[in-house]
Specification:
Oligomer: heterodimer
Distance between the termini of chain A: 25 Å
Low-confidence stretches of chain A: none
Strand content of chain B: 5-15%
Number of domains of chain A: 1
Largest interface: A-B, 34 and 39 residues
CATH superfamily of chain A: Dynein light chain 2a, cytoplasmic
Order of helices and strands of chain A: HEEHEEEH
Number of domains of chain B: 2
Mean pLDDT of chain B: 81
Shape of chain A: globular
CATH class of chain A: Alpha Beta
Structural class of chain B: alpha+beta
Radius of gyration of chain B: 21 Å
Largest sheet of chain B: 5 strands, antiparallel
Distance between the termini of chain B: 52 Å
CATH superfamily of the largest domain in chain B: Tetratricopeptide repeat domain
Strand order of the largest sheet of chain A: 2-1-5-4-3
CATH architecture of the largest domain in chain B: Alpha Horseshoe
Number of strands of chain A: 5
Chain lengths: 119, 277
């Protein structure tokens, strides 16, 4: 796994400790840049960060237009895994990449805690 | 009928565990006192949660109230308890027909006919379904008085109404093409304002981005995107590679249930898209 800058390391570590989580990242929601990452080898952090931020922005705008308010948590489900995201108040996205059989509820809780810690 | 209601109400008051609630609920349904019928059915269900007829009664009332999604769930539950329940088989056939799934409708009517071979109503409905006409809505069981059903007469699936018969078709379901053009459904915000076009514009390209993200992560094809908002939940599904389905509900609807709603809507959307080819 790659390492995260000091301060964010423990936050991401708590997310990646959940069984089935392959990695976690903090992404700047505005520009899609990686702020910190704790990923399995082989995952292209910067590209995933850019796409996750873009998806998050489209989703946020669509949800606000639909009148359901800002996104608290979202979860992209795929055949062989999932991407789970919680936007922090500061605009940073807390992102987890997980196996398909991961406990989504548990990851959601850890992501929410991480988002709170990030502020 | 009013006297019957009074008598049955009195009997139920004296013996709340009695199964008389089934007849009382059905009578109230036939009299279009749907809220009262619903209360009777729910109270009965609380006392007899494993009684198939109670779920069937509740489903018929929900269907009368045009809450087809929950009616589907209740008839589904009825069949889990009693797999040959004729009322539930007919009810589900009716709902399948409403969304244009004639094959499933006929399969359920076939099963109903096997369970009740002497029921002329089923034979007639089966013939109508096979001819493409709309079968009548499910009737009360033979033991319940008054055969006239009050379920509104359903319309056949129209080409223009992709989500015909699905709950929220005009305010919480939206089908878009890859460029974000609206193919069907509509969306309203909690204040009742039409937000279809605004939401569609923001969702243009989401399907491609979700596909790229999943591919980049080696996750294979994406099957859904569920999002929890402060005031409501949304679920995105790609019914085909070139289309995107959005389902929106308020926060009272759990995410798991939303996924089921999305699955049903995706089936309807896929079928509609195939018809347009």
């Amino acid at each position: 796994m790659t390492s995260a800058p000091a301060g964010y390391g423990r936050t991401l570590d708590l997310v990646t400790r959940v069984r089935g989580v392959r990695g976690a990242m903090l992404v700047s929601g505005d520009d899609g840049l990686v702020v910190a990452e704790h990923l399995m080898e082989g995952i292209k952090g910067p590209a995933v960060a850019a796409l996750a931020a873009s998806l998050a922005n489209r989703l946020r705008r669509a949800m606000e237009a639909a009148g359901v308010g800002a996104s608290v948590f979202w979860h992209l489900q795929a055949e062989q895994g999932a991407l789970l995201v919680v936007p922090a108040t500061s605009g940073i996205l807390v992102v987890a990449v997980a196996e398909p059989d991961v406990n989504v509820g548990l990851v959601r809780l850890e992501l929410l805690r991480a988002a709170e810690a990030v502020g | 009928m009013a006297d019957d209601i009074k008598t049955l109400s009195s009997q139920l008051a004296q013996d709340p565990d009695s199964l008389v609630f089934l007849r009382l609920g059905e009578l109230l349904r036939q009299k279009r006192q749907l809220d009262a019928a619903l209360r009777v059915a729910l109270t009965g269900l609380e006392r007899h949660p494993h009684l198939a007829d109670a779920h069937d009664l509740y489903a018929r009332i929900l269907a009368d109230k045009r809450d087809y999604e929950r009616a589907f769930d209740e008839w589904d539950m009825t069949l889990r308890i009693a797999p040959d329940h004729v009322g539930a088989l007919k009810g589900l056939a009716f709902l399948y027909f409403k969304v244009g799934d004639v094959q499933q409708a006929a399969a359920h009517l076939d099963a109903a006919q096997r369970a009740a071979p002497d029921d002329p109503g089923i034979t007639q409905a089966l013939a109508m379904a096979r001819e493409g006409a709309t079968p009548r809505a499910p009737e009360a069981p033979a033991t319940a008085p008054g055969p006239e059903s009050r379920v509104p007469s359903p319309e056949p699936l129209s080409d223009a109404r992709v989500f015909a018969g699905l709950e929220g078709a005009q305010e919480g379901l939206l089908l878009l093409d890859a460029a974000g053009r609206v193919l069907g459904g509509a969306l309203k915000d909690p204040h009742g304002r039409d937000v279809t076009d605004a939401v569609a514009a923001y969702l243009a390209g989401v399907s491609q981005e979700a596909t790229r993200t999943a591919k980049l992560l080696g996750l294979g094809g994406w099957s859904g995107l569920a999002a929890e908002g402060r005031l409501g939940h949304v679920h995105l599904t790609p019914p085909t590679s070139n289309a995107l389905l959005l389902v929106v509900r308020d926060r009272a609807v759990p995410m798991g249930r939303l996924a089921i709603v999305a699955q049903r809507a995706a089936v309807a959307a896929r079928r509609w898209l195939e018809q347009q080819r």
